[in-house]
Amino acid sequence: NGNAGFQQVLERLESDPVCQRLSLKSFLILPFQRITRLKLLLQNILKRTRPGSVEEVQATQAYDALEKLIKDCNENVQRMKSTEELIYLSQKIEFECKIFPLISQSRRLVKCGELTALDFNNLSPKWKVTTRPIYLHLFNDCLLLSRPKE
User: Which residues form the signal peptide (predicted)?
Assistant: First the structure.
């Protein structure tokens, strides 16, 4: 989005009839869609092969290899999404001292959300309760509490 030249070239390429008006995202997703279609094709082949035949053994080996490939692809996609979340979060959070590296290969965000902190003022004769928002970020290896900048 920040590179106007890239955006212009991308728009020109996407409007080209050769691309059939498909976006760049669709071309990036296409290989994953083909892999899942191959899995369906192999399932149908396995249904129609004779049990115990050489073709069944080969189709089963191909199916198992494809299953492993799909599993690896899904794990890598999840890992990249997790890393993107950490990068986005590290851009939003400002530490007073940089002793805590938020982005790590092994760290992933499990859950995050806004909470309300209640402060009781014991000094006043009447119980006065004030609230302020805080954010909870639960990672697989630590818990981070943050508050909006005032």
Answer: none
Q: Which is higher by pLDDT, 44 or 92?
A: 44
Give CA torsion, residues 144, 147, 148, 150, to 10 deg. -140
pLDDT, tens only, 122-144: 666 666 777 888 899 999 988 88
Q: Is 0.85 surpassed by the pTM of this model? A: no
Cα 109 to Cα 59, 68, 84, 131, 148: the distances in Å are 39, 25, 10, 26, 19
| Domains of the chain and any CATH numbers | 2-89 (1.20.900.10), 107-144 (no CATH)
d(CA 139, CA 150): 25
Strand partners, 116: 133
The contacts of residue 127 (CB under 8 Å, 6+ apart) are: 120, 121
Whose tokens are 């999840």? That residue is 78
